Amino acid sequence: TSAHRPAAIRTTCGYCGVGCALDVVTAGGEVTAVLPARDGPVNRGHACVKGRFAHGYLTSPERLTRPLLRRDGGLEPVSWEEALGHVARGLRAAVADGGADAVAAISSARATNEENYLVQKFMRTAIGTNNVDNCSRLCHSPSAAGLTASFGLSGGTDCFDDVERSDCVLVVGANPVEAHPVVGARLLQRVLRGARLVVADPRAVGLALHADVHLRPRPGTNVALFHGLAHLLLAEGLADENFLRERATGLPELIALLDDYPPHRVAEITGVPAEDLVAAARLYGRARQPAIVYGLGVTEHLHGTDGVRSLANLAILRGAVGTDRGYGVNPLRGQNNVQGASDMGALPDLLPGYGKVTDPTARARAEAVWGVPVPGRPGLRIPEMFAAARAGGLRALWVIGEDVCATDPDSDRVAAALDACPLVVCNELFLSETARHADVVLPVTSWLEKDGTFVNFDRRFQRVRPAVPPPGEARSDFDVVHALADAMGTDLGCPTPADTLAECGQVAPVFAGLSHDRLDREGAVPWPCPDPGRPGKAKLYEERFATPDGRAHLTAAPYLPPGEQPDDAYPLVLVTGRRWAHYNSGSMTRRGGNLALDPVDFLDLHPDDALRYGVRDGARLTVESRHGQARLVARISEQTAPGQVFCSFHFPSNGVNRLTSDHGDTVTSCPEYKVTAVRVSAP
Ligand code: SF4
C-alpha cells in the first residue's frame, strides 16, 4: 500500500503525452526511484520504462551547468549576466535592423504551461511579434486545425477513461504499445476483455497482433482509406441519420464525394484488400460505442489536416461524438506538454485559449490584461522561420528545449538556417545538435526540477513539482524568460508559476477555473474549465459543437497523393517513428539505463526487400533520399511491409532527418515525416 512507500514528490511524467502521475523518491538531492502513482488519474499504478527508469540523465556529466557564449568560433562558459546581456543586446539590434518580426522563438512542448505562456507573452509584448511557435507544428498541428474545423475545439473529444469503455476501438497511425505504453496496455486490457479492435497502420505495430482487422494502407493514402470506410458506413446503413440531420452539416457534399471511393477503388489506392475494408467498416459501424484513437501516422502528411478531418467524418457519421453513443476522436500526443504549449498560445496565429491574433476581440482581451498592443498579423511557423533565416530576414532565433537540428526534417537545411541567423539562443540540458550551432547556450532545468503544470493528451491539467535541485547554475525556462525580460528592461508580471496560470485564465476564460491550489487538491482537471467551482469538461460537445453554427462539420476533401512517391531511383518508402525505450531525439533516454535496453537504432526492412537489395541482417547501409544521406544498420523484420522501411529518430548521429523532406501539410506546414522515398545500398 502507499503507506509502505517512501516519502516522495508527486509530479507528472515529462516524456510522452499520456501524463502518468509519478512519485519521485530522492536522497541527497538525487532521484533514487520513480514509482508510478497508484492513484494516478491516467496511469493508475502503471508507468513505462521511460517514466520509471530514464532519469539517469539528471546527473550526467554532460549536463550543461553554466551559460555558454560563442567566441572565436567556440562556445565558452560565461556568467548569466554576460550571457543575458549579450542576448538582450542582440535582440535589440535585431529589432532595430529588421523590426520586431526579425526575431522569432520556438517554444517547447517539454516546458510547462506557465513557461510557454511566459515565452509567448515575452515575444508578443516585449518584442512585439507573433513569431512564436512550438513543436506541435511538427506533430499535431493538423489535429488542432482538423478537430477545430470539424468540431470547434483543438483537443481530443473525450476522456480516455471513457474511450477505454468502448466496445470497438479504431486505432489509426499510432503505436501506443511502444510510444504511449500505458495507453497501449489499457487498450490491450480492454481488448482482452472483449472489445473489438481495428488497427490501421502500415506496420505490424504491437496492437495489430491483437486486432480483429489490421488495415495496412500504403503510407500517404489515409484520406482514401477513411473515405472508403465512410462510403461503406453509408452504403450499409450504418450511419446515424438522426444525428446527421440534427447535429451535423456537409452530408450532401460528402455523399457526392464518396461515390468515388467504392471498396475496389480504395483497395487500388491504399493496397488494403476490399474485404478487410468491409470488415473494418462493419466492426466500427455496428459497435454500440465506437471510439477512435490516432497518432502521428494520421497527421504527419502533406494532407494531414484532411486526414484528421476525414477520420473525424467516421465518428460524425456514426453519431459517436458529443453523444452517449461513442467516444469520438482522440489524438495521442507525442510530447508530454504538446497540448499545453498550444493551449498557452505558443503559436504564431493563436493567443492563449485559441483566440485568433487576427480577431480584434481576442486581441483586446489579451491587451486588457497585458497592457500593451498585441500585433494582429500572424507570425512565422517553424519552417518559415528557417526559410526566413536562410533568406536573411530573420536576425535572431530563440530555440527553447527543442533539438531542431536533429528532429526537424531536411536537417542539413535547418543547420544552414541557424548558421545564417546572426543570433541563435538555445535553452538546453545538453550540448545538443542545435546548441552546437548556437551563439548563446543557456543551461536549463528538466521536468524533474520544475514547478508548474502540463496538459496531457486528453486535456487534463496536472501539477509538475521539483523533486531535485538543478545542477550548477542551471535555471528553469520560467526564470530565464524573466531574467531576459529584466535584461531588456521589461516587467512581464507573473512572478510565480501559480500567478502565471491565474493570469492565463484572465486572457483565456476556458482556463479560468484552473489554479495550482485546485490542482494540488484535485490532482487532474480537464479543460474547458471556466469556473473554479465546477468540474472541467472531460467529454466535449454534449450540448452543442463549438463551431460557429453549433454543428459537427463533415469534410468532402478528396484524396490527393503524398508529396513523395517512390520511383526506380528511390524505390522504398521510409516511415519514421518511435521505439519503446527512447524518447524523441534521445537526449535524455540515451544518457542512462535505457541505452542498455535499446542501444542502437536500426533501419527495419522486410525480408523480400532484403533479398531484392542484397541486404544482410546487421549490415551497415547507406540510405539516400532526394534530400540527403544517412548511415543505418539493417534489421530484417516482417513488422515493416514490403516496399517500406522504418527507422526512429532517437539517435541523431544516424542522421535520419537528413533524409526526410520539407513537404508539409498544406494547411499547417506539419512535415511529411511518414513518406520519404529512399534507396538503400549495402557495402
Ligand atoms: Fe507514462 Fe508516457 Fe511517461 Fe511512459 S512515457 S511513464 S506512458 S507518461
Description:
The chain has 683 residues and is α/β, with parallel strands linked by helices. It folds into 4 domains: 2-59, ADC-like domains (N-terminal domain of TfIIb, Single Sheet), CATH 2.20.25.90; 68-135 and 338-460 and 471-526, Rossmann fold, CATH 3.40.50; 141-332, 3-Layer(aba) Sandwich (Dimethylsulfoxide Reductase, domain 2), CATH 3.40.228.10; 572-681, Barwin-like endoglucanases (Beta Barrel), CATH 2.40.40.20. 32% of the residues lie in helices and 17% in strands. It is built from 24 helices and 26 strands. Strands 5-4-16-15-14-6-7 form a 7-stranded mixed sheet, with helices on both faces. The chain has a 6-stranded mixed β-barrel with strand order 21-25-22-24-23-26. It has a 5-stranded parallel sheet with strand order 10-9-8-12-13. Strand 6 (103-106), helix 3 and strand 7 form a beta-alpha-beta unit. The longest helix is centred in the N-terminal third of the chain and has 19 residues, at 80-98. The N and C termini lie far apart (57 Å). The mean pLDDT is 94. Bound molecules: iron/sulfur cluster. Iron/sulfur cluster (SF4) binds at residues 13, 15-16, 18-20, 43, 47-48, 50-51, 180-182.
